[in-house]
Structures are given as structure tokens and as C-alpha cells.
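Reviewers of the previous submission asked for a worked example of the structure-prediction workflow described in the proposal, so we include one complete record here. The input consisted solely of the amino acid sequence. No template or homolog information was supplied to the procedure at any stage.
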Amino acid sequence: MTQRPNAQPGRPAALGRSLLTFLTSQPEFMLLTVDAQGRIEAAQGNVAGLLGTAPETLPGQSLADLLVPEDRAALDGLTDQTRRLTGRLRSGGGGRWCELNVLPLDRPGERLVFVRDLSAQRAAEDRTRALEARRQALLDVATDAIVTIDRHGRVVVWNRAAERTFGYSEQDALHQPLVNLIVPPEARAAHLSGMSRHQQTGEGRFSGRRVELQAVRRDGERLLVAVSMTPVLIEGELFYTAFIQDLTQQQAAQRQLREQALHLNLMYEQLPVLSWTTDQDLRVRMVSGGGLARLNLDSAPLVGQRIADLLRGSSHAEQGVSAHMSALAGQRGRYTHPFREHLFEVQVSPLHSESGQTVGTVALATDVTDQRREEIGEQYRARVLRSIATGEPLGDTLHLIADLLAQQASRLQVQLLTVRGGTLQTAPGRPLPPELAGVFSGPVRPEALHPAWVTALHSRDLTVCALNEDGSWTPFRLATARMGVRALWLMPVTSRTGEVIGVIAAYRAAPGGPSVRLAGLLGQAAQLMTVAVEQDQYLQTILTTREETLRTLGVALEFRDYETKGHTDRVVRLSLDLARRLGLSGEQQDELRRGAYLHDLGKIAIPDQILLKPGRPTPDEWELIRRHPVTGYEMLRHTPALGAACLEVVLHHHEHWNGNGYPHGLAGARIPLLARVFAVVDTFDALTSARPYKAAWPEDQALAELEGMAGRVLDPQLVAAFVQLRRAARPGGAPAGPDG
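From that input alone, the workflow returned the following C-alpha cells.
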């Protein structure tokens, strides 16, 4: 070989030695000499730093022993042609990644092994991979589309949300111009112009701002998106990262919320409610709700007023202020408040700020007028039905029906009438105003009142008329005019057979007919009145039948003891005259009348030869006669229709004031009152009637005898009242009443 000019024969060797010296001086290198058997002959460099041991301890050790067991197999494939491998050196009980570069020496099998520490590089690579994994995970889980483009507008990042939003896969989108993928055709020129301007001047429409604009999907569908784009320099290269939020669902949700809010507002304005808010001083801040229009209220004068001032004068003022004070203290309050013929139920709650502090109250007032009226109506209907079922007087039942109607409609005057023989008669019960009382003081024919009455009776349906439209000024018209009545509602009351048996008349100052609710209520009242009237007629029939039966029993005794014929009717009439004189109640009069009919029923058990015997009875016969009150009582005491007072008349009408009577020898006030009343009448009739053993006494003589028996046989006060009653009677006239 010809040596080149200027060549220096020793220079390459010197350079090699200098290179080795340099490498072995670096902390990440060490140099090993290995023989043909793979044993270390010498070690240089940072042996202690890489292996944690001194260099002189390595000669004689196998190169494989320096590696962790899992990486030793890699040395088996190390040949002269395989010059480099990576593995982990045993260091401090762990593993340190290193790169092994092998160079053959002149002697066969000998090799130089350059060991370079890769632990820092591998750690950096691990961190890079972890960061990339986290970045990719964030891109994958992000709900917004994340798109990155380079300075030329080509896509370099396209996450899964972008795939879902725009319909392009990552593979389809990468390296494609973004303007061709999602920007509408009419906006592409502006998009490219904006990018160019930003790269030249640093100014841009999207930079650092959130902008809403139109985008286009792969299928051509337009959608509204919010875009936030940020420019970033990476290793000197300019990129743009865009966060894109699909507003389609949000826009639809907002539209739905607006529609719902509109509907709720419309519904709220239709509801009979009022709402208001107050500050901490309980001054009204705002008033709203459909109740404003319904009550013809203007909210402006209410704002700024104190709740206490607005409620002043109301019977519920204290409850209202207390409910608002409770709301300020954090508790809900509730009260009822009447206003202009309406009843409101008010619920008051605390009004909180965004930080949760109580800054006032909010109240919701619901109109419960109809609900409360219905509750009261149900109570009245139940009372009416109970009154009918228990057989209370018809007047009391009709009074309840009239109250039911009056409770359900403000300023409504109600009149109930019965129909008999084509004439109208005010039903007992609720009193009429003076103006109408004069018109209906007795039976009156419908045509004498107003044509509407005739129409109602013939149509058998609700009739409504305006009284000011008729030209005939009848006493009825004049009376209603003085009352200020402008509308008359007439609801006929028909029996089960269709016969008109009554009329419900409603007088109202306001013109027009009843509401659907009131018309239905009038119909219900008519049905209740039908039941009440028919029930009363049925009861009267029963009572009349029972009365005739009781009278028949009394008269039957007269046919047996014919000398006392007429005695029953006389004592009944005289007993009722005296009872009215004394001011006894209707129930007491009924019991007295029944007792008078049945007082001698026990005589049925007396044999004819004793009862009809002329002359005075013997002592034994008289003893048998004296038992007839007990006998009559025992015969009647299990009869449900007869009250205790009636049975007392039968049992004790022969007791004497001084206690010498029979059957129990009662004296004075211990004798029941009705029995004492009947005893006076019975004695008077006995004196003034002819008997087999005596003639009839004149009345004056009989009255004188009664006065002689007063305080001994008869109650002196009752005798005095009866004597006054009889002496006040005039020939051919009726006995005086209770007032003499």
C-alpha cells in the first residue's frame, strides 16, 4: 500500500486513545475488556456509578453476571456481527438500563464492550409516553370536539368528540384542510383570510375568545357550535387548537325551556293565585299572578307597602304578620285571608339570596273560595239529609236548604215556597225580608206575581228573568224594586211523579243568570226539597194514621162504656186548650194528646159486670178498677212510637196532690206535669158528664168543685189556670188562648 503524502503513521492510534480516555471520563460510560469466554479482564470508567462497585472487583466475573437475570439471554446471540444490545445492569438491587456496544480486538475472541447509561433517556421516554397517554385519554374523554391544525390549516389532532360531532373519523380528518371539513362554503374565504391575517399581524377574530357560529357536518347538516381557538408555538411551529362545543342540544333545550316558561307564565296568569315578595322589613317588593286581573287589582300601589299596613283591619291580620315573621326566621308560615268575597290560603316561605341568606319572604295566595264553599256545602247537605232522616220539622229542614244556597252565593236572597191547588205559599223556616213578607203573607197565585212564575211552573225547569224588563207593576214587582233586585231565578221542585210541589226563588241584585256551579246547586237544593217535602208528607200521613189509631182505641172504650161516650175527644180538646194556656211546647202537647187518647186503655181488662155495673163498686171491685192505670202502662210501654211523657199520663193520671191517689201514691211535684194537667181535665169532664151512678154537674158547680179539690187532689196552680180558661170562654166562642 502506498502511503499518502503528509500522512502521519501514529496519528489514528493517538486519536483512538484520546477518544477512549474521553469516553471513560464521562459519568454515563464505562469500558470493559472481555475474553473469549465472556469473562471480564479489565474495567474502566464510571464503574462505581453504574454498578455500585469498584473496578478492581470486576476482573474474572462473567459479563452475563452484570445483567439482571431476565436480560442475560440477550448475550447468547452476541456475535461479531451483532455489535449492540440493550439490557439492565444490576445496580443497588434494581436494574439500570444501559446500551452495550461491542468491538472485536485483534486477539481472537477478545472484545471491547462500551457500556452507556440509558436510565435518564429511558425515564424521559417513559415520561413522554405517559404524557402522550394522558393527552390521548383527555382527548378521548372530552365531551367537546378538540381539533388542532397547523399553520396551513391541515388537521393534526381530531378527537373522538370531533368524530361524533362532525361525522368524520380520525383517519378521514387527519392532514385534511379543516376549512373543507366543517366550515360552511359561504364562510370559507373569511376563515382563510382570518388565518392569514393572524399569521401576519397576530390579530384574529377567534383568538382567546368564545364565538358562536355555524358549522357543517359530513352529511351536510348545519349545526350551531361555540368555538374557542388558541394559537400555540411548538418547537417553532405555529399550531391552532380549537375547542368546539355542539350547541344543537343546548339550543333545543333552551328553546324548550323558553316554551315551557311561556306556557307556565300563561298558566300562572290563568290560575286564581297571587304571589308577592317582601324585603327584610316586610315591605312588598313585587306582586304578580292571575288573581290581579280577577280581583281587578293594580299592583303598583301595593309595592312598597308594609304587610302589617296592608292587613290592618282584617280579622286575620295578626296571623298574616306572624306567618311572614316566621318566614324571616327560616320557617314556613300559613294563614287564610278573606278579600272581596274571596277566601285565600296564603303560604309564606323564606326568600334566599344566592349565598343562602334570608333576604325577605315570598308568599303564594291561592283562591280557595270555591273549595271552601264546597266543603261548607257538603256539611249543609249532610245536615239536610240528617234532618230528613231523623224526621225533624219540615221548617227546620227547609231553613237548612235555604242556608245552603245562601252560603254558596254572596248577596243572594233565597225563598222556598210550596205549591198547593195552583197557589204559592211561603214554606216555614227562613224569614223573608219585610218587602216580600207582605206579598207572601198568605197563598198567592203565580200570575199575580210575575209571568216568570207561571213559566217556571209550566216548564218545570230553571227560569231566569230580568225583573226590570217587565212592564206590569204588581205588588211583587214593587217589592223587588225596593229591594234592588234585578235578576230572579226560579227552580221548580217536582215530586217523583212529576207534580210541581214547590219552588226555590233566588233574588239577586246583579243581572244575569247563575253560573254552572250555582245552577247545579239550585238543582241539588230542589232535589233535597223534594225529598224533604215528600218525607214530611209521608210522616204526616203516618202521624195522622197513628193519631187516628190512638183515637180509635180511646173511642173503642166509649163504645164499651157507652155512658161516657165523647169522653175521649173532650179530654183531648180540653187538655190541649190548657196546655196552650200554660205555654207547653209542641212536643209536650203531642205527648199529652196521645196520653189523653190512651189514658183508660187498661179498663179493657176490667170485666163488664164491674165496669158497667150500676151503682157504686164494692171495695174489691174498686180495687180492680184502681189497677187499670198499671195495666194500660204495661200494655203500652213497649210501643216505640209512644214517649215516656205519654206513658206517664196513662200511669199517673189518678195520683193526688196530697199523695192519697193511685197507683203509686205520688204527691206534689213528684207527679209528672202532664199527668197533673190531664188529671184536672179528666176530673172536670167526669164531673160534667153523666155516669150510671150520678147526673152531670153544671160547669160553674164543677169549676167550684175543682177549686175545692185544689191543693188536696189536684195541682192548685193548674186548677187556677183551667178555671180562668173556662171562665174566659164566651158562649158560642172559642176558649181563650195562652195569654187569656
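The first helix runs from residue 11 to 25. We consider this example representative of the routine output the project will generate in years two and three.
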